[in-house]
Write a structure and sequence with these properties.
The structure is a single chain. This protein is about 25% helix and about 35% strand. The chain is built from 4 helices and 9 strands, in the order E-H-E-H-E-E-E-H-E-E-E-E-H. A 6-stranded mixed β-sheet has the order 4-3-2-5-6-7, sandwiched between helices. Helix 3 links the parallel strand 5 and strand 6. The longest helix has 18 residues, at about 10-30. The two termini are about 20 Å apart. It binds inosinic acid and magnesium ion. Magnesium ion binds near residues 43 and 156. Magnesium ion (MG) binds near residues 43 and 156.
Length: about 180
């Protein structure tokens, strides 16, 4: 185990099973359409790979990069940087590593709907409990997690630890 990790929450094997269960739900819910999975870079990559490898229906995938501003504006301000996927008339599933305050996902969901998406659902690997500042919940979620800072399987602290194959709690001494 990495020396900066306090405790492992989910092993590689557990994560694979969990994304497999999510893939089965998506297979069933989208069997009559061609869903477009849109992943939020960079944190979504390991989750998205594991998920799409286990989806068996025809699907498309695309990615976006967002920038979040917070601090001065208490409402938060989330902006898509650069390329915007073509979501018009599509059944979109936005995928992200973790749902925390909810600002990123509510903003993207609204932007995709205003760009003409037919439907927009949200799939997250982790759902932080008790940290939401806007009204949004995931349609597909892997695990409810307590409000601790977690890293690995895409999740970062200062762009580090994304490559850990498991998800763990980061030692407080690293970020305090
Ligand atoms: P939200 O807009 O606050 O829901 O932001 C979600 C984003 O915050 C995620 O995509 C992560 O990049 C980041 N984030 C939130 N909690 C954690 C955590 O515990 N570890 C790593 N990144 C986190
Ligand atoms: Mg991040």
């Amino acid at each position: 185990m990495n020396k900066d990790i306090e405790e492992i929450l989910y092993s590689e094997e557990q994560l694979h099973l969990t994304t497999g269960n999510m893939a089965k739900l998506i297979d069933n819910d989208y069997k009559d359409t061609l869903p477009l999975l849109v992943g939020i870079l960079n944190g979504v990559v390991p989750f998205m790979v594991s998920l799409v490898n286990q989806i068996t229906i025809p699907m498309n995938m695309d990615f976006i990069k967002v920038k979040s501003y917070s601090g001065v504006h208490s409402t938060g301000n989330v902006q898509i940087i650069g390329y915007v996927p073509d979501v018009k008339d599509r059944d979109v599933i936005i995928c992200d590593d973790i749902l925390d305050t909810g600002r990123t996902l509510i903003e993207l969901k609204n932007q995709f709907l205003s760009l003409g998406a037919k439907s927009v659902k949200v799939a997250v690997l982790l759902n932080k409990v008790g940290t939401r500042v806007v009204d949004i919940e995931a349609d597909y979620k892997g695990y409810d997690v307590p409000n601790k800072f977690v890293v690995g399987f895409g999740l970062d602290y200062n762009e580090l630890y994304r490559n850990l194959p498991y998800i763990g709690v980061l030692k407080e001494e690293i970020y305090k």
